[in-house]
Automatic annotation (TrEMBL):
GO terms for cellular component: membrane. This is Glycosyltransferase. GO terms for biological process: carbohydrate metabolic process. GO terms for molecular function: galactoside 2-alpha-L-fucosyltransferase activity. InterPro entries: Glyco_trans_11. Keywords: Glycosyltransferase, Transferase. Coiled coil: none annotated. Pfam families: Glyco_transf_11.
Amino acid sequence: MVQLYSMTFDPSNASSWISSKLQCGLGNRLFQLACAHTLSEEWSIPLVFAMPYCLPSEHGDFNTIFKMFPNVPKCWSASPELAIEQKGIFQYEPLPTMPPANKILLKGCWQAAEYVSDSFKASWDAVKGAEDLLKQWQLETKEQMVKTAFIHVRLGDYKLLPHHQVNLLSYFETAMKRFPEDIRFLVFSDTMEEAKNYSVFNDRCVFVTESDEYNTLFLMSRCWAGAITANSTFSWWGAFFGRQAALEEGLEYRAYMPSKWMAEGGPPESSNPIYPPWANVVSV
């Protein structure tokens, strides 16, 4: 079998590879890369970053995804033979069982759980001051991590995007009640001062001031009791990586996601494909 991730692999001389056009924010980019990763495994061809198709990030650090997947080679002169385009944002359609060309570029959002493989693992090696970060938020020990879940409140750019404006207050309250009383919650938000005023948050909640998206996902991945995500691909991935780490420790992981992902004016198709089988969908 082809070695899919190799630091010695030279993509410029490769006879075959698969990549994905990376666009929008980190949560979206992770779905785009994850789909290419899944196909690289199924087709036994190398996964690469096709750098001419890695667009500037709409928010966050452009380099974060490269820190998370440092062993995926960068191809600076990528010239795909075929582009596979997704028809909708959330739509899931089975992809070919065999590669239809040698050098393939995926174009689309690919926001469907079935496109994501459990083997899609991020690296946290580039987190600066990781030990201090874990100490600051009391996530140093297994005992602390198994008693911590995270909540994500996304407000910042969503205020400018009407189709993302879903009221999640009752959802947060309902999901919090489903955790044992000895579980504490780390609350992450891009507008923390506003999130602090939410009446549903109580003394079990600790408001995290970390703003770096890489560090934030790292902290989310260490909350092993579970997750209460927003209608956000970013916290979707926080739950994915947290569950991944918890399962490796033989732990039960509870993930909750809101039943309404988009408000009126959003994409016409159903957002149901984004929900993974391991998530509990709470009515909004």
